[in-house]
Write a structure and sequence with these properties.
Elements: H1 10-30, H2 41-51, H3 68-75, H4 81-88, H5 91-107, H6 113-126, H7 137-150, H8 160-170, H9 172-206, H10 213-222, H11 225-241, H12 252-267, H13 271-290, H14 298-308
Length: 309
């Protein structure tokens, strides 16, 4: 197979892809958020949000309510409306709601509003750590239905928009505070991830090279031109991806661990890749021996091992 078509080792590709991904992440974080230019997109979103509470009146959810006995007790306490709502969101209730939404989703065409809204609501509930239940219109609608029933007040589909608006007014301050906390938390998480990436890069940059750059350059210059590209590719996997300790600490166990375990698991090499790597390592070891940098006895062991494989 021609050398120019030979695929690079997956270890190298993975490292290069990770670097590109990190650079892309930083560029995106530095870019301002794009504003959709599609006409009517904001109106469509508002329409969907207004439609969400109506799911509480679909046949699959019509008879679903929160614990009325518990609600009566909580209404007689000093608990705030928000605290009462959160107290009623028990695991059993959430499980029942999710199952009903799943049935509603399956009963309607995939791209229908009912199916889309059911799926969106289930996603929001499943990710309640990042998307608080208090911002879920369906949960609020069911809560308001349950409360109206307990208080002997009729609340139908036509009355839910006004009831939702009143709920928002009563709890606006708390909801706004929660939204601010979520936004701040999201920014802090983003900054933390970026700092973690930068620290990882710094640690990689601080890694002590196994061979001094001048020594390695001297070796590469001695490699025949037609073999340089392949040799450098092989040794990049060994010296950069594998990251062995300084050459003075190399031993036969390290060579075997690299060839028999690390290279196999991380590069998924073909037979020709194994042959090329053995040849490149042997060439490097022979050069380092001539430079009196290789530990005693390692060359003899490495030659016997690499040539017999």
């Amino acid at each position: 197979m021609a050398k120019k078509t030979k695929p690079k080792k997956s270890g190298m590709l993975k490292r290069q892809q990770q670097k590109r991904k990190k650079k892309m992440l930083r560029r995106r974080q530095a870019m301002p958020k794009r504003v959709s230019q599609q006409p009517g997109s904001s109106q469509q979103l508002e329409q969907l949000l207004r439609t969400l509470p109506t799911l509480a009146f679909e046949p699959e959810l019509a008879d679903l309510s929160m614990d009325k006995t518990e609600l009566k007790t909580l209404l007689d306490s000093d608990s705030t409306e928000v605290d009462i709502l959160m107290e009623l969101l028990t695991e059993d209730f959430i499980t029942d709601l999710d199952q009903r939404l799943a049935r509603l989703e399956e009963a309607n065409p995939e791209k229908s509003i009912k199916s889309v809204l059911s799926k969106a609501t289930r996603h929001q509930i499943a990710n309640s750590e990042k998307i608080p239940n208090l911002s879920n219109p369906v949960l609020i609608a069911i809560f308001l239905k349950t409360r109206a029933s307990v208080e002997g007040v009729e609340l139908d589909l036509a009355g839910i928009p006004a009831a939702m608006e009143e709920f928002d007014k009563r709890n606006h301050e708390f909801i706004q505070e929660l939204a601010d906390k979520i936004e701040t938390s999201g920014k802090e998480e983003s900054v933390a991830e970026t700092e973690e990436d930068l620290l990882e890069d710094e640690q990689q940059e601080e890694h002590i090279p196994a061979i001094e750059e001048s020594v390695y350059k001297k070796y590469v210059d001695l490699v025949p031109a037609e073999k340089q590209e392949q040799v450098e590719e092989d040794l990049d996997v060994f010296l950069v991806d594998f990251q062995p300790p300084p050459v003075a600490e190399w031993d036969f166990r390290l060579v075997k661990r690299f060839m028999n375990k690390w290279f196999i698991e991380n590069a998924n090499p073909l037979e020709e890749d194994l042959y090329s790597m053995r040849e490149s390592l042997l060439s490097l070891f022979q050069f380092l021996e001539e430079e009196k940098l290789l530990p005693d006895t390692l060359l003899a062991q490495a030659e016997k091992y690499l040539q017999s494989e």
